[in-house]
Amino acid sequence: MAGSPFQRRVWSELVKIPFGEIESYGRLARRLGLPIGSARAVGAANGRNPVSIIVPCHRVISNAGELTGYAGGLERKAALLALERPASKLPRQLELLDAGDAF
């Protein structure tokens, strides 16, 4: 995949997020050894992922547990997460979206 060295580092961490799990932008930044405040840079690299269904950028949420930014739309992100996780473990914001209407 074509991208900057930083983007490729972020993408390589995304593929390590297990099916059915979520990660926050901040925790992802810390896993990469980045300084505090790097969550936005990680989010920007996440958003440039050219193969978002293969490199699972939908599994990354805000530090507050909210769904944020997804090129396919938040409804689709919610639907993908709902397919992967038991309802009891979904982020609170998913209760506000009807994932069944995503397709």
Molecular structure report:
There is one protein chain. This protein is mainly alpha-helical. The chain has a single domain, classed as Orthogonal Bundle (Arc Repressor Mutant, subunit A), CATH 1.10.10.10. It is 36% helix and 4% strand. A two-stranded parallel ribbon has the order 1-2. The longest helix has 11 residues, at 74-84. The relative contact order is 0.16.
Please, what is the average pLDDT? 81
In the CATH hierarchy, what is the architecture at level 2?
A: Orthogonal Bundle
Domains, number: 1
What is the CATH C level class, in words? Answer: Mainly Alpha
Strand content: under 5%
Encode the helix/strand succession as letters: HEHHEH
Return the structural class: mainly alpha
Low-confidence stretches: 95-103
What is the radius of gyration? Answer: 13 Å
Fill in the CATH topology.
Answer: Arc Repressor Mutant, subunit A
Give me the count of strands: 2
The count of helical stretches stands at 4
Task: Tell me the CATH superfamily.
Answer: Winged helix-like DNA-binding domain superfamily/Winged helix DNA-binding domain
Straight-line N-to-C gap: 27 Å
Q: Characterize the main sheet.
A: 2 strands, parallel
